[in-house]
Amino acid sequence: MFGLVDCNTFYASCERVFRPELEGRPVVVLSNNDGCVVARSQEAKALGLKMGVPYFQVKEEYERRGGVACSSNYELYGDMSRRVMWYLQQRAPAVEIYSIDEAFLDLHGMQQHFDLVGWASDVRGSVRQRTGIPVCVGVAPTKTLAKLANRLAKLANQMANSGSGVVVLDDEEQRREALAQVAVEDVWGVGYRSAAKLHTAGIRTAAQLAGVGDAWARKNLGGVVGARMLHELRGFPCSSVTVEDEARKSLCCSRSFGQVLTRLEDVAGAVATRTMRAGEKLRAQGMAARLMTVFIETSRYGNTPPPYSFSAQLTLPTATDDTLVLAGWARRGLERLWRPGMRYVKAGIVLDGLERAGANQQAALFADTARSPERAKLMGALDALNKRYGGGAVRVGAAVTTAGQQEPWGMKRGAKSPAFTTKWGELWQVRC
DNA sequence: TCTGGGGTCCTAGGACCC
DNA sequence: TCTGGGGTCCTAGGACCC
Asked: For A216-231, what is each residue's pLDDT tens digit?
């Protein structure tokens, strides 16, 4: 059996843990630059706010009706996530951290020793008590069914506001009933495109989907991916709990600017900032990259004529995790794709072809970028300083602004809550 | 004025290898 | 009618996930 633990309206719940006055009120969390709504409390959903809507479109009406908006605070959410995951790891033999707010648990053989409903309820209660975060738990014979069970648990919770928050599907009868209750577009793995195809074919529920022929699924639902999904819906596992976060295959650092940029030097500063971040991530994972894609975008909306996205891919002479080397290549990439006179809103870099840094790394014949012990030390010092004094304490030159000046590419975060759990200066204050 | 930031897996075709 | 039979790597793009 597999368990899926999913935090309820995770970002909004994190805000509420440290700001209990938000309890019972509509709360939304906004994406970077306070752009879109990315998390909604139950009360905010009840007001009709949709996931992903640009906040400026709903702001006035929402706030008039008493809604609260928070800028995203990923330091806080990341730290709260670690607490939840750490506790889950104490309770299950294997845990796959699937996203910031979700984890699959391997419950192999546990039904012989535990009543799964009672066990899941206990885990749910304990997570709430220890972290302040409400969760729902779904348990079933496959991951896809566990997701589905979790969805049913969430729905029951929302409707009654007193549901048990736990759904266990451990016999055929329960599986059938569950499948009949879920719309096909709500099945894990059915996206916008597949849903449209399925509707056209007259397939509306998960139960109907589980009954389609394998050949049809392979043809219309993305080949083996679709076939696997069907098997899982029928109760045959095609995927197991993967504990280690195996080496990543790619890594991406991208962000919209707080304002439109037109000058090469400003965009170069943004690219350098993203590159530094990518270098940090790379070193934190002990990896080096061989391929780099630099991209810049103009606005997708309004009158800007397409194409709005320009990218350049560079093959590095040798895989590297050195920020200064990466920054040099990123600059070259940017100059290659730069078109003057355009209004840019976003920039980023993608690193591919990741391999373990050091040991088996192939050296280039004529490159000046071989990994020297000195450079590795330098990178270590860079990371240590930035960790100790805050990100951006030490930067590459292109990412430096004149003293006292705002970064032209900086983010807008109008309503950010303090880093309650990760910065001494921003700890919660208790008044006597 | 204002529209997120990450990821994964799969397919298919072309170049190239023996 | 029939044209060898395996492979790998690269690139681009689609679909989906949170």
From this structure: 888 889 888 899 999 9
Instruction: Please write the tens of the pLDDT for every residue from A375-387.
Output: 899 999 999 999 8
Q: Which helix (H) or strand (E) holds A337?
A: helix A323-337
Nucleic strand C under 7 Å from the C-beta of A250: no
The token pair at A86 is 């750490």
The C1' atom of C12 and the CA atom of A102 lie apart, in whole Å, by 31
Please count the residues of chain A: 432
Nearest nt to the CA of A98 via C1' is C18
What are the backbone angles phi and psi of residue A327, rounded to the nearest 5°?
-65, -35
A65-112: per-residue pLDDT in tens? Answer: 999 999 999 989 999 999 999 999 999 999 999 999 999 999 998 989
C-alpha distances out from residue A165 to A135, A150, A151, Å: 7, 8, 10
**CB atoms near residue A413 (< 10 Å):** 16
Q: Is the dihedral of CA A335, A337, A339, A345 positive or negative?
A: negative
Which residue's alpha carbon is at the shortest distance from the C1' of B4? A31
- Give yes or no for CB of A99 within 7 Å of strand C: yes
Whose tokens are 């706010």? That residue is A49
Give the nucleotide with minimal C1' distance to the Cα of A281. B6
